[in-house]
Amino acid sequence: MSKIIFDSGISLDGFFAGDNRGPENPMGGVSAKIHSWMFNQKAFWAYLGVEGGKEDTLDGTYIRETIARTGAFIMGKRMFEEGEASWPNDLYKADVYVLTHEVREPWVQEGSTTFYFINDGIESALDKAIKSAKGKDVRIQGGANTIQQFLNAGLVDEFFIHIAPVFLGSGIRLFEGIDKDIYDIKIMEVLPSDFTTHLRYKLTKKSASPTK
């Protein structure tokens, strides 16, 4: 059965991305600071289909395991627009559902990646993604606002964050505006490495209070 997950890097002060995000400045220019652990791994570059990376450590194992368990992706329009011009063909190797108000035909790439543009809300995107995932997990790719929508709707089962040892000072916070009363949260795993700390959490929706 599919789980609904997200897997995100953040700074020590909780920022998912920097200021002034856009197609010409993806993630507000902070990707190298937050994701250096990933860029250092051969597994990351192998996923892109190119040579790269200096190491193949526990971090690389983590990357491979996360890739293997993911069967479909959901992302917001802003993240899609930042990556559309620069992502390599068939980056995701799965169906990707883009939340947008734009009416657009699916973008079928060479390989196994197809982008579908969803105009009728997060539940619709999730239903379609679960069907595409065929029992694997559905990953809410980002950006932060999209992750927040799924969290606040009580739809997330598990998440992973990778805390980079940097302060950004400003930007877009991953957990801005989260409803604190939706979930019971359990730490499932803590893995330190040279460039980040990996944390895995399980989310269980709190039982509704009985009606008096």
UniProtKB/TrEMBL annotation:
MF-aspect GO terms: 5-amino-6-(5-phosphoribosylamino)uracil reductase activity
Domain of life from the UniProt record: Bacteria
Stretches that traverse the bilayer: none
Gene Ontology BP terms: riboflavin biosynthetic process
Segment forming the signal sequence: none
PANTHER family: BIFUNCTIONAL DEAMINASE-REDUCTASE DOMAIN PROTEIN, DIHYDROFOLATE REDUCTASE FAMILY PROTEIN (AFU_ORTHOLOGUE AFUA_8G06820)
InterPro entries: DHFR-like_dom_sf, RibDG_C, Riboflavin_Biosynth_HTPR
Domain Bacterial bifunctional deaminase-reductase C-terminal: from-to ranges: 3-181
Organism: Sphingobacterium psychroaquaticum
Name under which the protein is recorded: RibD C-terminal domain-containing protein
